[in-house]
Amino acid sequence: MPSESRLAAVDLGSNSFRLEIGHIDHGEFQRTEYIKETVRQGAGLDGDRNLTPLAMQAGWDCLARFGERLAGFKPTEVRAVATQTLREARNREDFLKGASAILGFPIEVISGREEARLIYQGVSHMLPASDERRLVIDIGGRSTEMILGQGLIPKTMESYRVGSIAWSNRYFPDGLLTRKAFEMAEVAATAVLDEAFDAYNPAQWDTAYGSAGTVGAVSDVLVAAGWPSGHVTKEGLDWLLDRLIAAQSIDNLRMPGLREDRVPIIGGGLAVMRAIFQLLRIESMEMANGGLRHGLICDLLGDTGYSGDLRVNSVNRLASKFGVDTVHGRRVGGVASTLRQQLFGLSDQPADGDDERALRELHWAAELHEIGSRISHSDYHKHGAYILDNADAMGFSLSEMHRLSVLVLGHRGKLRKLGTALDDQELVRQLVCLRLAVILCHARRDPDLLGVIMLKPEAEATAITLQCRDGWAAAYPQSAHLLREESLAWEKTPWRLDIAGL
Q: Residue 136 needs a FRET pair 20 to 30 A away by CA distance; which of 71, 240, 377, 435 works?
């Protein structure tokens, strides 16, 4: 657990942006401030799945206010994530570049399953300790997460592209609340969610919990109308449906407990919720206090229910799933890490945050560099990059997985395929170390590095020199040949790799 006394979580949801701030009291997080702004960014995607300028500006304006509140926080005290809308947005990098600068902290776009993990983590930590089998559901603006778990550990996680904003825009675009529109919306939601039945059917769980978003909005309305608090029943959903149809239009909705920001999207949210109740045969859903942002706090505290770094577990799982030669992967990782330490003169010094991150990335890329081998021997680096770019890996953001995929793609073959990635100096240095490590370990045994290799940067920023000891090339002619070929490969880029002593 970190020594800092305060922590903050930022959740960039499709409907609302939320900021949670608190302090650590006897090892537990105590909220001191909570800010929620309805940005409805999920409604700002155009027909080409690009965020409109208006939607981006609304997000930036909100984050500017959050950023002012977070002034003075350290990087280790804040975690910010974005979910489905930015997973979908083709121009998300345009938004994120400005957003991270405005907020003052990096913003990670997380996968649907990573979002599900964090939601379960937040919910489970706010519930009493129990061995019950839990089904946790979070109906957001553009996605719905379902998780089965027990205690603090999620076991089955999935994210479905159905939500209150998306369904309201699609089936209630003019704001008319007709029975026919609800029927169509529920049928469509069931079609998307139908595959969930096998994994999430009633035999798999003891209690169903609803987190945040639509579930909370529906509960507020039902409680205000006199229904029991703490849970939502199927009968309550039927009652609410009748009330909405009776209103005929969102312009006529005047219901106690229904917040103004929820009025335009209540139709789609209710349709999705009713479809889930029907599909999974839920009679009653308990209200959960925790959610995504509480899961982020748990990650900051290191209180995840797992031992060690989740990303290590994910790398090991991927390696096992795709039959990677882990012994060789770790061998390459060890050599690559040694080379990078030489390059930065860090062999006898503790790594700072950025250096530690870069070393971890390099080692993980080395461990997974052959992950595509079962698909194709000749093009395994391309298949490996595709796998990593599309894999759900707990603990990783989409940008972290993409960086690993670039390293795996570039660890062999021509470098031109990496395009603008070669503008990133740190990535290039990681890539040099990885490619050299793969070459030096080509015989799939520990290479002779004693006094052989000394990697160092030159005065010219784009030049790196590899120094070999006298006689090494004669002892290892194949390795020497591969190193000469590697030097030639870099000549076709803005970078230069010089091999001395061959």
A: 240
CB-based contact 150:132 (threshold 8 Å): yes
The reply to whether domains 6-109 and 310-500 share a CATH topology is no
Distance between CA atoms of residues 220 and 243, nearest Å:
14
Decide if 77 contacts 8 (C-beta within 8 A): yes
Contact at 8 Å (CB) between 384 and 371? yes
Q: Using CB atoms within 10 A of its CB, is residue 414 exposed (0-12), middle (13-18) or buried (19+)?
A: exposed
CB neighbours of 324 closer than 8 A, spacing ≥ 6? 318, 367, 368, 370, 371, 373
pLDDT band at 494 (very low <50, low <70, confident <90, very high): very high
CB atoms within 10 A of CB 25: 9
CATH no., domain 310-500: 1.10.3210.10
pLDDT at 347 > cutoff 50: no
What does the pLDDT read at residue 394?
82
- Reported as a single tens digit per residue, the pLDDT across 426-475 is 999 999 999 999 999 999 999 887 665 567 666 677 888 888 888 888 88
* Placement of tokens 């599900």 in the chain: 116
* Nearest by Cα to 436 from 328, 335, 324: 335
Residue 348: per-residue pLDDT: 43
Give the C-alpha separation, 270 to 92, whole Å.
Answer: 29
Pairwise CA distance, residues 459 & 443, whole Å: 33
Q: What is the pLDDT of residues 40-79, one digit of tens each?
A: 999 999 999 999 999 999 999 999 999 999 999 999 999 9
CATH of domain 113-293: 3.30.420.150
Residue range 167-191: average pLDDT?
96
Asked if 268 and 169 count as a contact pair (C-beta separation under 8 A), the reply is yes
Q: Tokens at residue 309, please? A: 């770094």
**What is the pLDDT averaged over residues 367-373?**
96
- Alpha-carbon distance of 382 to 365, in angstroms, equals 13
pLDDT at 353: 60
- Model pTM above 0.70: yes
Which two tokens mark 182?
A: 């609800």
Pseudo-torsion of CA 264, 219, 234, 280, nearest 10°? Answer: 80
Q: Which helix (H) or strand (E) holds 12?
A: strand 6-12
Domain limits of the chain?
6-109, 113-293, 310-500
Residue with tokens 């500017």: 64
What is the rounded end-to-end Cα distance, in angstroms, of the chain?
Answer: 49
The domain defined by 6-109 folds into Nucleotidyltransferase; domain 5 (3.30.420)
Structure tokens at 165: 């904003």
